[in-house]
Predict the 3D structure of the following.
Amino acid sequence: LVPPPRLRELIRTIRTARTQAEEREMIQKECAAIRSSFREEDNTYRCRNVAKLLYMHMLGYPAHFGQLECLKLIASQKFTDKRIGYLGAMLLLDERQDVHLLMTNCIKNDLNHSTQYVQGLALCTLGCMGSSEMCRDLAGEVEKLLKTSNSYLRKKAALCAVHVIRKVPELMEMFLPATKNLLSEKNHGVLHTSVVLLTEMCERSPDMLSHFRKLVPQLVRILKNLIMSGYSPEHDVSGISDPFLQVRILRLLRILGRSDDDSSEAMNDILAQVATNTETSKNVGNAILYETVLTIMDIKSESGLRVLAINILGRFLLNNDKNIRYVALTSLLKTVQTDHNAVQRHRSTIVDCLKDLDVSIKRRAMELSFALVNGNNIRGMMKELLYFLDSCDPEFKADCASGVFLAAEKYAPSKRWHIDTIMRVLTTAGSYVRDDSVPNLIQLITNSVEMHAYTVQRLYKALLDDISQQPLVQVSSWCIGEYGDLLVSGQCEEEEPIQVTEDEVLDVLEGLLVSNLSTPVTRGYALTAIMKLSTRFSSVNRIKKVVSIYGSSIDVELQQRAVEYNALFKKYDHMRPALLERMPIMEKTATNGPTEIVQTNGETEPSVLDTKHPPPVTQPANQVRGVIISKYAGLHLCNLYIGIPPMTAYNKNGLKIEFTFERANPNPNIAVITIHASNSTEADMTDFVFQAAVPKTFQLQLLSPSSNVVPALNQGTVTQVIRVLNPQKQQLRMRIKLTYTHKGSPVQDLAEVNNFPPQSWQ
Amino acid sequence: MMRFLLLFSRQGRLRLQKWFTPTPEREKKKIIRDMTTMVLARKPRSCNFLHWRDLKIVYKRYASLYFCLALEDQDNELLALEILHRYVELLDKYFGNVCELDIIFNFEKAYFILDEFLMGGEIQETSKQIVNRSIEASDMLQETMEEYMSKPAF
């Protein structure tokens, strides 16, 4: 019987494959051979076969059929078998497979093996992939080994204990006694892993943290010895003694010193010493300095030490090594809130990093720059940031633009500066600006009353140059629609007024409607702007013509708007001036975030005229403002009423029914009421039927409803028209009956509606 | 703690994978794909740090191999570069002028060395000599037992 190929032979063979298909074929052949070998329970070559399987697994091929074989190898007496078996277990098994529990007994035996390297294998495997159950079963063994004098095993047991605690935090207590003299060890491996164990315990338990605070002096001493000791060949890295241990100790000191004055004071000197004496020519020294800075910033250090730390970061910023510059920016970003003034001193260096070639550094520098902007430096900083916006990669532009808007809103030294800054962003990065900036900017422009003429002029000129950047085009369209009268009257004070005629302006807006570059949303803005100009320009006929053309547009949104605007011309012309009046100043919300736009179908909120009054108290300010903006932007005109406010007829169990009123027909005795049913619950209301009854002196006609499903979460409304004849002009009363199905159950309710406004029946 | 360590070639072929937290097989494959794509796309003189999900990725190229280490927020990136360097030194001492082929043909040894240096996402031993001695002693144990059993080494 030919022995199976050795591992390295197989590797060599597979590497000769010239195509993926060839490789796959070889592997399938070998896997088949290995599988039959496993089936035959061949002990001799099991190790070799599993090793080969692990190689093939690394190439990406399935190897799950080797899982049990790994367990058999682990149970073997041969060290070679165990080594491969445990490796296989770590690569092929994890706690998701039930099979892994079979390892527990083997590991337990091996933890008590006479050979330390076998014990080491068991500890390593348990410490890498032990499941919670395994950890529970074997924690006692680990604890025993944590107290051994064999440093090779002790260090492994410490990390194994860390893993146990991570998996089963309740077991932390049992390791406490063994930690008693861990730090008295001379062996660096044990010291290091002990510090890791102590760190883990302190991070997880405030009690442990208080308990271990007494170790601070000892930790300080160990650190001091490391720094002061002469050259130690075993632990030296570029002239520094055991940097790994130093960093770990600094990290533990950070946790112990945090929010504790005494501990912080006890470590003050050593931190200052490390900060000033560490060699900074190589990465390893800077790694220690970095950790030191993080510790200084996190504990209750005295101000002198904090300034020292920030200055180290400032020096890092000037380092040739990119990694160090990156790390400095990251750290400064963390401390900019708490030590703002200290970080401000390094502002110019930080701003220089905006010009760095490295993408990661640029991003950090941008974030930090925005964090440093304040009322004093806004002009200078904005110059740099706008320059950055011009030249940076597209991946930064959206964030940068948003950052500029936020900063400008907070610290703009003047309204003119603010508008200019917005203009600059829109014209240079206009296509990257977030969609939700548009309503925010519109609000800003509206509120800068004295700048209207200047703003509309600049935006108009920008449109002449370029109509491809949608956010710019949308804001411009809106402004032209709103302030077009100022544009043609040449009233600008801030700069030389341009000479432009009404026809030229309408040309531009119509151009947007037909251009391929305009998105449907932009077209909506343009059409609405044209409509608004009908009360500001004299060329009303031209506007009427445009609006009527779009009444048959293929774009449904555009068509609906055009039809409604047509109706405005034809049937409600007397209302047109009031409706298209100048927007009032909008309240500023407290947040700096973008305005929420509440997308509605225009039927359930107060109609257009109502926006002149203060918004109803029940709705959050943000939402109402969004409603106002969306209404003006879209100018959806639905359910006009002529002075009769809408009312809530019913509001129960998530179903709300509002009535709106019309008397737009020749017979004044007929009130036309439209009901709007909305559903704020999580489930749709289906088979919805609305019925109404009125007293004998009235007559009622109920037209067909728009649908019989009231969608969940206010995503739409059901409307239905009621016509009430009231010849005797009596007070209107109504009884309504609602039936619907909700979450599978039928619901029925009766209600009286008595709160009709007097104007609806008088 | 460290979350994972990957070694891969310039063509994106995996040479070693060490996972320090339980991860489903599909997720491992996805992470490997993401890492190789991201790291191989980096310009030659970029800094060695990347942000990916909530982790810090530290990578360094040694000859034809990329070493890629994932850290949590609290971990020290600059020290991670030293960790990678230390691992390369250990491999170099063991194999004598280590190259990618050594890692390919002796991957199990690369794992054994790693398992003496790191464990559970933390550093286990900070002395180069002690790690080397442990590996040598284990190797000798292997051969001794093989000789005893008079069976061929695998």
Remarks:
- Residues 386 and 425 of chain A are 7 Å apart (CA to CA).
